[in-house]
Specification:
Elements: H1 3-11, H2 18-29, E1 34-36, E2 44-46, H3 49-60, H4 67-79, H5 86-94, H6 112-117, H7 124-137, E3 150-151, E4 157-159, E5 167-168, H8 198-205, E6 211-220, H9 222-232, E7 239-245, E8 248-254, H10 263-276, E9 279-285, E10 292-294, E11 304-306, H11 307-313, E12 319-323, H12 330-334, H13 348-358, E13 361-366, H14 377-385, E14 390-392, H15 395-406
Parallel strand pairs: 3-4, 4-5, 8-9, 8-12, 12-13, 13-14
Antiparallel strand pairs: 1-2, 6-7, 10-11
């Protein structure tokens, strides 16, 4: 079963193997998609379309970054909707005014006979094409109707209504009969070129791992214990040192000014890095690195750390990651006294060069959209200075950075 689905997933870039296909077939053999019939508990029926979607995704997709590709493949395999521009259509759905979907009447509830009399479109492709037409024509809020995107009616489009084959827009699932499940594409934010959440950042940072067992032997070595016990015939416990990631990371965060809009993203990155690296040091700077950095933003002026001290304290083996938008006045990067906060004795680019000369691996992680990098002079200059080792803060970008750092 599902051989065609298997190849469709591969066509869309989902890395599935025969192991996943066998797992899916085994799950179906075990009856996981069967549920008691609502009118006769002794009989079983197939579970809902949404449950089928979730089971297939559970068996076939092992990495969250492929959820979006999986949704596309499912839509193509089951309904052949690959010809529709779903991105454009979904963008239109998100632009629907919120008041159009506010419920002001009791939710519609039809009898089974009434539901059977309503028009069905026959396929998801036809249903989505009809929705596209409605969005082009609709100009106002509708409620209780049978055609437009609205609420409390028998239209196949909207929320809190009743239709055996519809697309729920807003609201909450009530009867689990909406036809559109796998083209909701809730997981676009997990795709390679999208902004990251904490978990996705942490998964990407795992490429930067070099494990070694160091320290005291305080961890049970199960395999060696079993081996020795079997050989001697008596229990022989063997301990070992904990396996740790020996990579040392130094992160320098740009804070304040234009970076304020990226605070939430930086918090996720910092949280992921703290969980992933045993040896992590971090400091802050503003716009460009100068002759001092700081550890606490509340004490940046009372407890600064000279940058020369930072270079002397941390050895070449540290992987250094600058995190900032690299967007500033060219004077801040190139000129003595160009800092917006004080009269710096040396240009910022001088300090950046010192860091690059001291550490073996240095990279810059930029939360700005890379499509705009070429329009900011300082981004272009810093990217060139870093030998193009500037990466966007996306899943693909962080992975590229960690692959470089791990070499």
């Amino acid at each position: 079963m599902f051989i065609k689905l298997f190849y469709t997933l591969r066509t869309y870039g989902v890395p599935v193997s025969t192991r996943e296909l066998l797992d899916l077939n085994a799950a179906l053999d075990q009856g996981l998609m069967m549920q008691p019939h609502p009118e006769n508990p002794q009989l079983c029926t197939f579970a809902s379309r949404e449950d089928m979607y979730r089971l297939i995704r559970l068996c076939m997709v092992k990495d969250e970054r492929h959820f979006d590709k999986f949704d596309r493949a499912m839509a193509d395999y089951f309904e052949g909707v690959d010809s529709l521009d779903m991105d454009e259509l979904l963008a239109k759905l998100t632009d629907i005014p919120k008041e159009w979907l506010d419920l002001k009447l009791d939710p519609k509830n039809l009898t089974e006979e009434q539901r059977r009399l309503l028009k069905k479109y026959g396929s998801l492709e036809e249903l989505m094409k009809a929705l596209e037409e409605r969005l082009k024509e609709q100009k106002a809020r509708h409620q209780g109707g049978n055609k437009w995107v609205g609420t409390g009616g028998t239209s196949p489009f909207g929320a809190y209504g009743d239709h055996p084959e519809g697309v729920r827009v807003g609201g909450e699932s009530r009867k689990r009969s909406a036809a559109k499940v796998w083209e909701q594409r809730k997981y676009r934010n997990l795709d390679d070129d999208s902004q990251l959440g904490t978990r996705q950042i942490q998964m990407a940072l795992r490429n930067l791992r070099q494990f070694a067992r160091t320290g005291s032997a305080d961890e049970l070595d199960i395999h060696e214990t079993i081996k020795r016990t079997a050989k001697k015939g008596v229990l022989d416990i063997h301990m070992q040192a904990e396996r740790r990631n020996r990579v040392k990371v130094l992160m320098l965060f740009d804070v304040g000014g234009s970076m304020d809009v990226h605070v939430e993203t930086l918090e996720k990155l910092f949280s992921a890095a703290k969980n992933e690296f045993k040896t992590l040091e971090f400091f802050y700077f503003h716009n460009c690195l100068y002759d001092y950095v700081w550890k606490d933003n509340n004490r940046r002026h009372s407890a600064p750390m000279p940058t020369f001290e930072l270079l002397n304290k941390y050895g070449r083996e540290y992987r250094v990651i600058f995190v900032g938008d690299a967007s500033m006045s060219p004077y801040e990067l190139m000129t003595v006294g160009g800092s917006v906060e004080y009269m710096n004795n040396e240009a910022g680019i001088v300090w950046l060069k010192r860091v690059l000369e001291h550490f073996d691996k240095v990279a810059w992680l930029n939360p700005e959209n890379p499509a705009y990098w070429q329009y900011t002079q300082t981004i272009v200059e810093i990217k060139k200075l870093f030998d193009n080792k500037m990466y966007p803060m996306t899943l693909h970008g962080v992975e590229e950075m960690t692959n470089y750092m791990a070499r």
